[in-house]
Amino acid sequence: MTEAPSTRERLIAAMTDALQRRGLHGVGLTELLQAAQAPKGVLYHHFPGGKTELAVAAIDQVAAGIDASLQRLLQRPGDPLDALRQWLGRAAQQLQRSGFERGCPLAAVALESTPEDEAIRQALARAFTILRQRLAQVLVQAGTTPERAPGLAALVVSAYEGALLQARVAGDVQPLQATTDTLLAVVAREIEGQAQ
Hints:
By secondary structure, the protein is an all-alpha fold. The protein is built from nine helices and no strands. It has a domain of 135 residues: Tetracycline Repressor, domain 2.
């Protein structure tokens, strides 16, 4: 039997959903508490820093989830580029299933953060670093040299985030699919060039 999520876990899940759908500033505390089915006052019990601390916890959890999914890619037999294509394809499926409402929570918060949002920017920097590092490992496993992998990983993240944004705005996964196809073709050519 699965345990019901704790109040803390429900608050983080509500914030993650809000970040994906509306960004940090698009949701109020009352709405978060309602979504988490949590009484007033409990937020500050679990997150004394309030909404900002909750957002940081949500960003850290998103990063951990991305890290875990990419680690699973590393452990799969077969072509790592095919696994990467599937990972990118899941983003398109999630976006489409949500009616083009749920984008990347990292990008949504990054776009609206200001220099005063130091804790949130640090959490985002950690999350994007984890993403780039794991993608670099996938790319090395696919045949990219360790020297080229970080740059290609940064390109993958940038292209992915931009394509996800375009697909969400257009209400069509085509920009994400086209970016995935082109990006993986570029990576494959890079690997072939290194093998010669």
